[in-house]
Amino acid sequence: MITGNEIPAYNIPSGILFDMHREAAAMRPGVLTKIGMETFVDPRNQGCAMNERATAEPIVSRVDFDGEDWLYFRIIIPKVAIIRATTADERGNLSYEHEGAYLGPLDQALAVRNNGGIVIAQVKRLVAAGSLKAQQVFVPGILIDAIVVAPDQMQTTQTVYDPAISGEVSRPLSSFKTPPFDVAKVIARRVAQELRHGAAVNLGFGISANVPRILIEEGQHGTVTWVIEQGAVGGVPLLDFQFGCASNAEAIMPSPYQFTYFQGAGFDLSLLSFLQIDRHGSVNVSKLGVRPHVTAGAGGFVDITARAKRIVFSGYFSAGAKLAIAQGKLVIEKEGKVRKLVEEVEHISFSGPRAVAQGQDVTYITERCVMKLTRDGIIVSEIAPGVDLDRDILAQSEFPLLVAQPPKLMDTGLFNEALLGLSLTERAA
Fold first, then answer.
1. Rounded CA separation 166/185 (Å)
2. Which stretches within 76-229 are classed as H helix?
3. What whole-number distance in Å separates Cα of residue 378 and Cα of residue 376?
4. What is residue 288's predicted lDDT score, i.e. its pLDDT?
5. Which of 167, 324, 359 is nearest to 248 (CA)?
6. Where are the domains of the chain?
7. What is residue 241's DSSP assignment?
8. Which one has a higher pLDDT value, 290 or 228?
């Protein structure tokens, strides 16, 4: 329906969506924000539109407020909310004791209720009125119109129920699998070297999702605190279709408040992935025309990167390359068919020029080199052992890369199976 232009469709960052829910609930006209400026969110680019019908019905505009440019999102009035919880009592009060995340059900229920809509809650079980203690209730029954009991409700798409995900027990660290030694692990290990002791670190999907397990393997678990957009603080973020939840979390925040933390750059570092990087340092994670069904949106990426102090993007230098590690060196057996360092990204999920202007520290880590974003462009600062700078790096980029003189050799320990002996330096005060 989207690609066929049957309905207008928009790709709105998750944090801004939560902001819109709150504004709709309070009957305010919309959201003023700088999140998304100079990205696909900005009306000077696509303005979040995913097709021609959306372009014809814009959802965001640039406005002047108090002498500054802002993005203005008009509220969308929701008429139905379908939320979930673990338990409902007979009065509709909802508790979340078996959930791995609250997400945003309270904001959504408020927005719908205050605008005359219907709120439906799916729960695992129904209990007698008065069974839930007041401090257990996250969404009060005065906001709920209907309850659907689903006794077989899954905790995640891969998990029936694991009490460590909902913070009821803690798993032993020995129960977490560490990644096998391969090229992806080399990248994750190099990313881990960017961490600082005591830092609060956001984690995204992709190769960087394995970094918490690198710390476990290296005896460094607990030296940083992981924060993920779904709300978990601390613990061990999970992988694959459990991603978004954590085991052994120290706290679970409602997502809207976690996004407030991210949008205001309260954290120290974000570890994220990339589909494409261009000559300006901009990154695309949200659209790939040849595979639209697997790049459906940006999630919280835009909210997280808009003001982050430090960002480390990680991924393979090219797509489809056949890679191996032999005798402590990277071996490129066959070059990839698709270049990921391109002249212009297909979709600006992260703006390199805006990052430079704001003084953000941006690093790109791949299997064959480490690069930094500077005012003059992207500079290759480290190269992997076994890699030819001209053939394997410079010739595989669609735009000229700068090169540090001389570039450092990436830590050779990364390319050997033995532990690194990782030790994190203290974060800056």
1. 28
2. 105-114, 183-192, 211-217
3. 7
4. 75
5. 167
6. 14-74, 80-149, 173-415
7. G
8. 228
pLDDT for 293 beyond 80? no
Give CA–CA dist 298/40, Å, rounded: 10
Query: Which amino acid, one-letter code, is at 261?
Result: Y
Q: Residues 173-415: name the CATH superfamily.
A: Glutaconate Coenzyme A-transferase (3.40.1080.10)
The distance from CA 220 to its chain's CA centroid, rounded to whole angstroms, is 23
CA distance 276 to 341: 6
pLDDT above 90: percentage of residues in the chain? 91
Pick from 256, 288, 290: which is nearest to 105 by CA? 256
Select which of 23, 194, 217, 229 is catalytic.
229
3-state secondary structure of 317: coil
Cα separations (Å) of 70 from 76, 306, 326? Answer: 18, 13, 52
**Residue 234 CA neighbour count, 13 Å, CB half:** 13
Going by C-alpha positions, the residue among 270, 327, 336 that lies closest to residue 304 is: 270
pLDDT tens-digit map of 151-191: 999 999 889 999 999 999 999 999 999 999 999 999 999 99
Whether 229 is catalytic is yes
